[in-house]
Design goal:
The chain is an alpha/beta fold and 411 residues long. The chain contains 13 helices and 19 strands. Keywords: Lyase.
């Protein structure tokens, strides 16, 4: 079945009555006069795709985070880790707050226009209260209590940016010892993993970085080093986290196979626009062999998969680059996750205030539909009948290029 679109004066293929980049532009006389009927197929194979949007280079800066303002809960100074972090930034202004979650100064909508400055110059220190382990079933068996939340990077599609105010700078929790003890108790109660699953055939896997990037966190404190060390001594458990930042200091942490790092990968063309302040894709790929040699289990996340008119060629090129770079040892243990883009109207509106160019890739109502998430959020995802076809095609390209790479899950 074909789906009708029109090519507008602005050069964009748009469904129904409006251009998805410029709502209402079809009502302009100049646009009406030149709209032409076009056939849009679920495969997105087009003989004459629209021109690629201008690429905005928002690459990893030399200094990812340099706190000039630190919000802290009063109890932070009672913890050695809290005093260590404060000592690292002696010139930062300190502002006490009742809760790391409720900081009125970060709720000012005007901060959206200073999105990157907030991430670079603001740090939050707090004490983690809840120690619950939440069942997951995808990337991990359980989501562990976090040692941080927020991120100094600024990926335009990331849900974390909608929390704790504008930009959601990093919060470091200074009671990481409470987290490691909770992990050890939970794993001990579970005992050995009797039935293998797609997450891991032997160990219970705990996701340590659901709301941030631990590779970046490791540049601020020893929390990540402590977590990696803890899993060396938990016999039936393994830590795991996804990252878009290559921090080679982690190579000295001696994980002994008990920590899984998942490098997130996507085609460089799109990453230069939406993966803001992250390590370049070539650097992430080049790091895989070294992290395997250092004793980490290393998987990759193909995430998010963003569908557009040239996606097939770009993903095939990425698979070829990855395949050529991997050592024999890295290939032998490699597995992956495939996650198609999920977007959100609130995040769309927020991005328009600081990085509207990203929305040219993310906001595609012509091929997206609303869907309620398990957590009760109204999100935008690719239309179900098309997404199934696109996912099958994606998995086919991956199997052809890297038949040794097992897909742990895909959605």
């Amino acid at each position: 079945m074909a789906y009708p679109l029109r090519r507008l004066a602005c050069g964009i293929l748009a469904a129904k009555r409006s251009c998805w980049r410029h709502p209402g532009c079809c009502s302009r006389p100049s646009c009406k006069d030149v709209c032409q009927p076009v056939t849009f197929l679920p495969s997105l194979d087009m003989a004459a795709p629209p021109p690629a949007p201008h690429i905005v280079d928002m690459a990893l800066p030399r200094t990812l985070i340099d706190p000039k303002l630190i919000y802290l809960e009063p109890a932070v100074r009672e913890y050695p880790r809290g005093r260590e972090v404060l000592a690292r930034f002696p010139d930062a202004e300190l502002v006490e707050v009742a809760s790391h979650w409720r900081i009125p100064q970060l709720a000012d909508p005007a901060l959206a226009e200073n999105w990157l400055r907030v991430k670079r110059e603001t740090l939050v220190l707090g004490v983690k209260k809840g120690m619950a382990m939440r069942p997951n079933g995808r990337s991990a068996d359980f989501i562990a209590p976090s040692s941080s939340n927020g991120c100094a990077m600024a990926c335009a599609y990331c849900y974390v940016g909608r929390r704790k105010g504008y930009a959601n700078p990093i919060s470091v929790f200074v009671n990481v010892d409470d987290v490691t003890r909770a992990l050890a108790r939970h794993a001990a109660r579970l005992g050995p993993k009797i039935e293998p699953n797609t997450i891991d055939p032997v160990d219970w896997v705990y996701d340590l970085g659901e709301n941030g990037d631990l590779s970046v966190d490791a540049s601020l404190s020893d929390n990540v080093r402590d977590l990696v060390a803890a899993f060396r001594d938990i016999p039936n458990a393994k830590g795991s986290f996804a990252t878009k930042y290559v921090n080679r200091d982690l190579l000295d942490y001696d994980p002994q196979g008990r920590t899984r790092i998942r490098f997130s990968l996507m085609p460089d063309t799109i990453a230069k626009v939406v993966d803001v302040r992250t390590s370049p894709m070539s650097e992430r790929i080049a790091a895989i062999n070294d992290f395997v040699a250092a004793g980490y289990e290393v998987h990759v996340n193909f995430s998010p998969v963003i569908v557009h008119e040239s996606w097939e060629a770009e993903w095939k090129a990425l698979f070829a680059e990855l395949d050529a770079a991997l050592s024999r040892a890295a290939r032998a243990q490699l597995k992956c996750e495939v996650i198609f883009l999920t977007h959100n109207e609130g995040l769309h509106d927020l991005n328009l205030q600081w990085h509207p160019r990203a929305e040219e890739w993310l906001w595609r109502p012509d091929i997206q539909e609303a869907k309620w998430s398990q957590s009760g959020m109204r999100n935008l995802r690719y239309k179900a009948n098309w997404k199934r076809q696109w996912l099958d095609r994606f998995l086919g390209w991956l199997k052809e290029a890297m038949p040794y790479c097992q897909v742990r899950y895909a959605f």
